[in-house]
Amino acid sequence: MKKSSPILAVLTVIALLFATACAVGPAAPDAGARAPAAPRGFPDSARHDDTGAEMPSLDREEGEHRAEEPSTFALDVDTASYGYARRALQEGRLPEPGQVRTEEFVNAFRQDYAEPDGDGFAVHLDGARLPGEQAALLRVGLQTREPDASVRRPVSLTFVVDVSGSMAEPGRLDLVRRALHTLVDQLVPGDQVSIVSFRETAQVVAETTAVTYRSELHEAVDMLGAGGSTNLSDGLEAGYRLAAGAFREDATNRVILLSDGLANTGETAWQAILDRVSEYAGKKITLLCVGVGREYGDELMEQLADRGDGAAVYVSTEDEVRKAFTERLTTTLEVRARDAKAQVSFNPSAVESYSLLGYEDRALTSEDFRDDSKDGGEVGPGHSVTALYRVRLRPDADGRLATATVRWLDPDTRRPSEADRSVDVFALAPALWGSASVRLQVDAVAADLAGHLRGRGSGKSGTWSLAELIDQADRLAARTDDPAVTELATLLRTTRDLG
């Protein structure tokens, strides 16, 4: 038998290997077929390894986005995160990083925005270059008109009060009772109140009662006592049923949950609770979450407020109760804009990339902005909403920097409206950070404090060191004569001392 050529044998092996690879490998695309789309959220220019996974960017930090990608988010007026962090620091402990939300730190401070002429929003844009960097801080400010207390609509309020055992600790149920007494005293003829308490089960303490029977409502509040476990779902369900039965088309219909947010019995699967809250929000019954307590279920209370078309506040002192339910009662209870969203578009010729500070839980896609079926945020009269962007500028940046647009629905008619404003690079002209708007500087210090509290132990923090932030806060406190800014400087020192 004739011997086969060595060259022929090698060629045969190669052919067999090639055929096997083709058999088990991916099928070749059809001629003219489109390449697979990048996963949702990946920029088209993202780098990928051999497996198709996205590789880390070589020139952008975590959280940065290309200027071509607009930033879209639901508005948020919650301040509970800052209120709780403040109490924790005052007690000599650091809040958990997951309980720190940057936007709520920023929005806890007074702003300087002019009001709009009508019932919508005034849009404000300003900013300043950051020291020693090819970067700037851009502030987007949205403001609604202050309420006219003399013409506010009636309110139909249903209080859902946590009276479980954990609420017996000082600073919980005792503070809630004082808050309820304060609120009842602020109501006027035409308003009505219902009260539900809950522990293992819910109990109706006061059926729907006209505020003219104020003494009976005060007696019902005094009867509230703590004990047992926390069936939050049963309390909310009973409260919403009572609110639905007392619903008035001409009134602001709101459930007010007062709790430490620590559900431990009944329906504790959050999604089921959140779905029911969303259902009632669609029927124009909104939710205000008032948090209390050293141990506080921040995450649940925040999500309840978001899904309930409402807001979350945290109170730990008599002064905070007074501010929430006396000085800013109408702002707390009424709604000026429903499903409000913001979208900021950057000029790619002036901006290389940007990062939004906070609003991680409120992020939306670009397509959601004008999709009125997508949930936004609810904003009351006299409210301001602030968003801060860290912007990486291109060399010799000039011309338009960014355009901010806000979209909202009328609370009654659900008719959509929009307002917008643009800002040029020239607006970042101040050469020294200290010459920028004082309120912008306060916002930046508050955001950086949140960055340090969120990033501790991870090597991530803010733009400035704690020592630099303390110096800035001291300087700003002297310029503003604002007790809240003085307190901010104290909280920064406490954060530094706690390490």
UniProtKB/TrEMBL annotation:
Residues 156-329 form the VWFA domain. Keywords: Signal. Residues 1-23 form the signal peptide. The keyword Signal applies. Gene3D superfamilies: von Willebrand factor, type A domain (3.40.50.410). Residues 28-72 are annotated as: Disordered. It holds the Pfam family YfbK_C. Residues 28-43 have a biased composition (Low complexity). Residues 45-69 have a biased composition (Basic and acidic residues). It comes from the Bacteria. This is Ca-activated chloride channel family protein.
